[in-house]
Design brief:
The complex is a heterodimer of chains A (311) and B (281). Chain A is mainly α and 311 residues long. Helix content of chain A is 72%, strand content 0%. Chain A has a single domain, classed as MetI-like fold, CATH 1.10.3720. Chain A has 13 helices and no strands. In chain A, helix 7 crosses helix 9 and helix 9 runs antiparallel to helix 13. The N terminus of chain A is likely disordered. Chain B has 281 residues and is mainly alpha-helical. Chain B has a single domain, classed as MetI-like (MetI-like fold), CATH 1.10.3720.10. Classes of the chains: A mainly alpha (311), B mainly alpha (281).
Chain lengths: 311, 281
């Protein structure tokens, strides 16, 4: 892996190190300039009184922005919803991705066609996907409502009530359920690819041995596949948790945080405050509330990954 | 387990997953060709065409909306972002994989942590930076900012690819008289081409998928990329031009889905090598 083992003159290693820095530095300089600087600015901004009208950070106001956040009921709702939506999405996503990767670990005819169809949600730009779902869940013309009415679940006499529509985006619980569904739909291909990569790395002889020992499908799944997948599943959790938690597009286009603020989430609330409301400092404070939660998720997942490595 | 039962379970499951994946797009395709009178009759079977299909909404998208402007903007931004990403990521990934020893593993982890910072955390200060650079409301502002999304991810992915290429190959080339940089150009780079190809697709689709930066920086219709132009400009107040909207959706989604579909196995093996290098760091 590394070249310390091979015998080389000190001059050569020295030259290597200089070349390494030369190749690395453009990326590092860009990342420091365009991620590091804005990151520090984000923190400064949240302690300032900057607005879109006067965007400079002239005066630091301490924790004022944070304190006023805690008095906003919308902020509390957004924080709760962000955690709830991320949690629900992840749990269901991991179960579905594990099942789907089991299916795709097998060779079958027309596999390429199925793979292309299955990966479609990931290929679609998020905002366009959200628009497609907005139309699919339309209050009047949703084909799902129509199908439910046809089989007698919805509409007069149906057990979901006489109404012909469920108004997915107009009711508190259904609005959140819709966002979770779109998140799962959108991230299932990514999660499946990550889990499948881990699934295919499990040595085949372990499965052969299980078969000889007479283990059935579910026995094999729970005592061989899932334990072996644990490090990979943590990678999948990290990737998807971050995407779900940090995303505002789905909410912005699908429910606009509504009805009322019932499906409001942190990133969209930050956008509404910071850009549409013109309160740069307040918006930055909302956005920074994501940081400790992201850090906790990252540290937990990395620790689990290392622990299962040692075991 | 019974073999035929197992087969039924397998194909049943596969079909359910596939239907879930394609249903919104399928509904979009059906919608594109619907006449408005047919579309807005709630009692009619939504999956059939009652007075027959029409192409007028498809041509409306190309002739009477700014869709082509959005598409051109997205392509220009995409090409520039892919070029910048490759220029920064490929050498960085090689340097991290080969030249830095154990220090490289830690940098790989740092890179991954940078990738964990979502754009929604940075968009407000980024708006200040872009305004400061005089690039607000211009596609060049997006070109400057999108590599923040693509560079960490692509470097991390390429790191796995470069690590999966045996270092002995470079050394052999160097014994044959190549310099280290020559070995990178002539040996490692050609072998990493599949990974670089995956990065091109990823970088392009990641920039296409961004909504928050474009929604924050861009206010004039002429500078909008697809992701912001389509959902905001094809809607007049509360009136959604659903057929044209769905046409835009489907036209963008299908080629991308095919590209991703062709790359499926490459993606899996990319993550395989990335996972091995991440967990064995």
């Amino acid at each position: 892996m590394n070249n310390n083992g091979t015998a080389k003159s000190a001059h050569f290693i020295d030259q290597d190190r200089r070349l390494g820095w030369a190749m690395l530095s453009p990326a590092v300089i860009y990342i420091v300039g365009f991620i590091g600087v804005p990151f520090v600015l984000a923190i400064l901004l949240s302690f300032s009184n900057a607005t879109v009208g006067s965007p400079g950070i002239h005066k630091l106001v301490g924790f004022e922005n944070y304190i006023s956040l805690l008095h906003q009921p919308t902020f509390t709702t957004a924080l709760k919803n962000s955690i709830l939506i991320t949690f629900l999405t992840l749990v269901i996503l991991l179960v579905l991705a594990t099942i789907l990767s089991e299916l795709l670990a097998i060779e079958f005819r027309y596999k390429k066609v199925f793979q292309t169809l299955l990966i479609l949600p990931w290929a679609m730009p998020v905002s366009l996907a959200a628009i497609a779902w907005l139309w699919l869940l339309d209050s009047q013309f949703s084909p799902i409502d129509w199908m439910l009415t046809q089989i007698g679940i919805l509409g007069p006499g149906g057990f979901l009530g006489p109404a012909r529509h469920l108004y997915y985006l107009g009711r508190d619980v259904l609005a959140i359920a819709s966002i979770v569904t779109v998140n799962i739909w959108r991230l299932l291909p990514l999660a499946t690819v990550i889990v499948l990569a881990g699934r295919l790395s499990i040595p085949q002889d372990r499965f052969d041995q299980a078969k000889i020992d007479g283990a059935g499908f579910f026995r094999t799944l729970f005592s061989i596949t899932i334990p072996a997948l644990m490090p990979v599943l943590t990678v999948a959790i990290l990737f998807t948790a971050l995407v779900v938690f940090g995303d505002m597009t789905t909410v912005a286009l699908l429910t606009r945080g509504g009805p009322g603020h019932a499906s409001q989430v942190l990133p969209y609330w930050a956008f509404l405050q910071g850009i549409q409301g013109g309160d740069l400092a307040g918006g930055a404070a909302v956005a920074l509330f994501m940081l400790p939660i992201l850090l906790v998720v990252a540290i937990l997942a990395l620790r689990i990954a290392y622990r299962s490595e040692e075991a | 387990m019974n073999k035929s039962l197992r087969n039924t379970g397998f194909y049943g499951g596969l079909l359910l997953f596939t239907l879930f994946a394609v249903f919104p797009a399928l509904w979009g395709v059906i919608t594109v060709f619907k006449k408005s009178a047919d579309l807005y009759t709630p009692t009619a079977d939504p999956f059939l065409y009652h007075p027959g299909p029409t192409f007028s909404h498809l041509s409306y998208l190309f002739t009477s909306t700014s869709f082509m402007t959005f598409a051109m903007n997205s392509i220009i931004i995409g090409v520039c972002v892919v070029a910048i990403t490759l220029l920064l990521s490929v050498p960085a990934a090689y340097a991290l994989a080969r030249l830095s020893g154990s220090w490289g593993a830690r940098s790989g982890m740092a890179l991954f942590l940078v990738y964990l910072i979502p754009p929604t955390l940075l968009f407000l200060p980024m708006y200040q930076v872009v305004t400061f650079l005089g690039l607000a409301d211009s596609i060049w502002g997006l070109v400057a900012v999108y590599p923040t999304i693509t560079v960490p991810f692509c470097t991390w992915l390429l790191l796995g690819f470069f690590k999966s290429i045996p270092g002995d190959l470079d050394e052999a080339a160097m014994i044959d008289g190549c310099s280290r940089f020559g070995a990178f150009l002539r040996v490692a780079l050609p072998l990493a081409l599949p990974g670089i190809g995956a990065c091109v697709v990823f970088a392009f689709s990641l920039q296409l998928s961004d909504y928050i930066y474009a929604a924050t920086f861009i206010t004039s219709t002429g500078s909008m990329p697809i992701s912001v132009g389509v959902p905001t400009q094809l809607v007049r107040g509360d009136v959604f031009f659903w057929q044209s909207l769905m046409a835009a959706d489907v036209i963008v989604a299908i080629p991308l889905a095919i590209a991703y579909g062709l790359l499926f196995d490459k993606l899996v093996s990319g993550f395989q090598s990335a996972e091995t290098s991440a967990t064995h760091a």
